[in-house]
């Protein structure tokens, strides 16, 4: 039988006068257990010189075979067996991380325009329950040259459609005030909200990524993510391994919060799997890609988030989203008329709230603008 003992925290002064707090947890076989007083470092003097060794594992006199978990560095190792692993860092071939980052960036930079449709199926349910997904139709358009993107979400079973656009450093949201308003007045008027792009990006990053986080929430900027891991691969605060199996580059990080990334070099270095696991909680994002004129774009995406105990908050244990991408048009000409107020659906009589200027006005129609 193993017993877990958590020591008290030890604080020491660094030359920079910063206070560093380290925690150690040691599992010791029952026959080797010491009392808490014996295993803790005790000292009764104040403002007296203290040997730095007092604040290391050496002061614990831990027997060989003790499993040590450093929760600050997120590392685990066994005394007398593999202490060298406590140094942290990403083992394997860290150059693969840069290769993935650059490959993903190169694929993205080949996309000058992108227009398409997708079907989303959102479900929330408990284990053993039948899924009853909500269907959403999505249309989107993106132009790198125009610095613009536009997308619409139309719910099948809810009488509301929300259209959004990013253009000229502004974020546009066009929708009915509420689903109740949409049902009561299906012909309008609707509201258009104009906000500063950067402020909206900080508040809602998914809607302003390239494009739409691949219907998210895990299709984010792989270049930024992998470049980060490549830059800190030898940091003692990071633990993990990276390796290549056939066309797959696999990165695994962390102990208490384990993550696994899989990237397919043959599919534009895109992420095909991202899994996060902690006790009682698992998230998994999977995707497959298709090639259009030398560019890889998603064919389908599946995201599942499972967490125990959510019923206490009135929620189902499992959230799931499946996305089917349709009608991809890549690098075909897109004109400015794809990114106008009218392309959002704005009609005469709708109300425009400009949060940048602090104004409210009624839209007079396209001929009056």
Protein model, in words:
The chain has 369 residues and is mostly beta strands. It has two domains: 86 residues, no CATH class; 277 residues, outer membrane lipoprotein receptor (LolB), chain A. Helix content is 12%, strand content 42%. It is built from six helices and 22 strands. The chain has a 16-stranded mixed sheet. The protein has a four-stranded antiparallel sheet with strand order 1-4-5-6, with no helix packed on it. The chain has a two-stranded antiparallel ribbon with strand order 2-3. A hairpin with a 2-residue loop joins β17 and β18. The longest helix is centred in the N-terminal third of the chain and has 15 residues. The chain is globular, with a radius of gyration of 27 Å. The N and C termini lie far apart (77 Å). The N terminus is likely disordered.
């Amino acid at each position: 039988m193993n017993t877990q003992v958590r020591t008290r925290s030890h604080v020491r002064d660094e030359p920079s006068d910063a206070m560093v707090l380290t925690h150690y947890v040691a599992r010791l076989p029952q026959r080797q257990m010491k009392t808490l007083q014996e295993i803790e470092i005790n000292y009764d003097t104040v403002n007296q010189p203290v040997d730095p060794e007092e604040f290391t594992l050496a002061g614990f006199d831990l027997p060989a075979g003790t499993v040590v978990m450093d929760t600050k560095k997120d590392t685990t190792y066994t005394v007398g067996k593999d202490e060298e692993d406590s140094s942290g860092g990403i083992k394997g071939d860290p150059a693969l991380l840069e290769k993935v980052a650059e490959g993903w960036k190169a694929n993205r930079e080949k996309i000058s325009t992108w227009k398409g449709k997708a079907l989303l199926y959102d479900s929330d349910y408990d284990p053993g329950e039948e899924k009853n997904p909500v269907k959403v139709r999505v249309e989107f358009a993106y132009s790198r040259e125009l610095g613009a993107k536009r997308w619409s979400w139309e719910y099948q079973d809810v009488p509301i459609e929300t259209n959004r656009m990013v253009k000229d450093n502004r974020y546009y949201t066009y929708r009915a005030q509420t689903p109740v308003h949409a049902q009561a007045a299906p012909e309008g008027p609707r509201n258009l909200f104009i906000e500063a792009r950067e402020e909206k990006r900080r508040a809602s990053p998914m809607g302003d990524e390239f494009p739409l986080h691949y219907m998210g929430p895990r299709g984010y900027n792989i270049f930024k993510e992998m470049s980060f891991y490549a830059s800190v691969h030898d940091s003692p605060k990071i633990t993990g391994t990276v390796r290549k199996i056939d066309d797959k580059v696999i990165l695994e990080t962390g102990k208490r919060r384990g993550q696994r990334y899989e990237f397919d070099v043959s599919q534009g270095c895109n992420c095909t799997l991202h899994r996060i696991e902690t006790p009682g909680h698992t998230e998994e994002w999977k995707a497959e890609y298709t090639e259009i004129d030398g560019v890889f774009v998603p064919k389908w995406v599946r995201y599942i988030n499972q967490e125990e105990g959510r019923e206490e908050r009135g929620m189902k244990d499992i959230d799931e989203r499946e996305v089917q991408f349709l009608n991809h048009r890549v690098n075909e000409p897109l004109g400015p008329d794809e990114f106008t107020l009218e392309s959002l659906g704005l009609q005469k009589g709708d109300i425009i709230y400009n949060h940048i200027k602090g104004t409210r006005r009624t839209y007079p129609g396209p001929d009056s603008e």
